[in-house]
Amino acid sequence: MTTIMRKSVLGIAGLAFAGGIFAGPATNAEATSVEAVKPVAVSVQADKPGVDKAKLIPHGVQGEQSRIDLNGEQVENVKAIIAATKKSDMDERAAVVAIATALQESKLENLGHLGDRNDHDSQGLFQQRPSSGWGTVEQITDPEYSTMAFLKGLKQVDGWQDMPLTKAAQTVQVSAYPFHYAQWEQQAADLVAKHWNI
Question: pTM (2 decimals)?
Answer without folding.
Answer: 0.72
